[in-house]
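Hello,

Our lab assistant flagged a job as stuck in the queue for most of the afternoon. It eventually completed. Since we weren't sure the result was trustworthy after the delay, we are filing this so someone can double-check. Below is the sequence as submitted and the structure that was eventually returned. Let us know if re-running is recommended.
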Amino acid sequence: MGRSRTLLALGAAWLAWIWVVAALSDRTWPWLEGPHNWSYDVERRATPLTRWDSGWYVGIAEGGYEAPPTRVGQETNHAFFPLYPLLMRGLSRGLGIETSLAGNLVSGTAFLLALLLFGGWVERHHGRERVLPAAAVLLLFPTSLFFAAVYTESLVLLLALATVVALERGRLVPALLAGYLAGLTRISGVVLSPYAFLVSLRESRARGPLRASAWARATAAALAPLAGFGTFCLYHTFRFGDPLLFVRAQHNWAKSEKTILDGPVLIWNTIVEDVATGRVFHKSPARTLEGVFLLLFFVLAFVLLRQRRWAEAVFVGGSCLLVVFTGTLESAGRYVLPAFPGFAVLAGLPLAKRLRVPAIAAALLVQAAYVFVFVHWLWVG
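-- returned structure --
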């Protein structure tokens, strides 16, 4: 109980910090605003932590999915999964509050619940002494602001943790439900599938020899996120006649035709071009840092492999591969956020006592800078 209260207090304090920075940023230098295509009505009523892709979730919550794209380069909302905007709609109508604020409440609540599950998971796998450092690393990561914004990161994190924790406690039905809902939240649910399979087998093996029933439970755990993903595809099939419409919609933003298999090549070409033209930090610092975050989590996946934490390595590595196949580094910093085992590993790195306070101060300053540029439409993760 003491650990839970401490984690809730830390999480609430962190959310307050992010909101204070966002509110101050919104009122500071109002003329400093990057280009965007939001209408004045939506921009006027949206909260400071509702920017960029948040608008798609607001649109789905208020009006559902629109007509499918008819040409390459036409941006539509079909790339976004339905659970998060459905929760926004329910909360907005139930409480009579503005849609974007409902999204912030969904995100904040999901994050606090996820933080509690994360603390318990860390204690079971790394010991009690690792809990607070791991929570601090998660809270202070530069792109963690998306846990408070109108984005799906906090909900994905909660459902991934709920799935794994339920499996580790031998509670299959809650695990199946959480896994299914994760599949309805974001494509990350596909990565959760092998993780759930391996965790279920690991827990069964710890109780004795693997029998047919253990393989059946593991298979069910793996299929649950895929079933959620499949439900989304079936919806697109029945309504629009295209089960993979979300893929076509996402790729349309590239302004030219591409496929999932083009992703690694496109990212490699981007890296080569940035290095060759000197844009690494001069013109594209945010994109460069996104690449650094992605590389960091690939390294953490390797560390987990070295520690023989096979299931966690698959989840963290798979989360990184999702970015690679999108063909852009723009979202790498937030796509790795649900890969919670990586933060537990980061928290285990040695740090001298005299450096802890300066490190926390530096992390908060960097995080404040990220919030500032996000609120002013100057950077999107």
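-- support follow-up --
The delay was a queue issue, not a problem with the job. The result is valid. The chain has a mean pLDDT of 88. The chain is about 70% helix and 0% strand.
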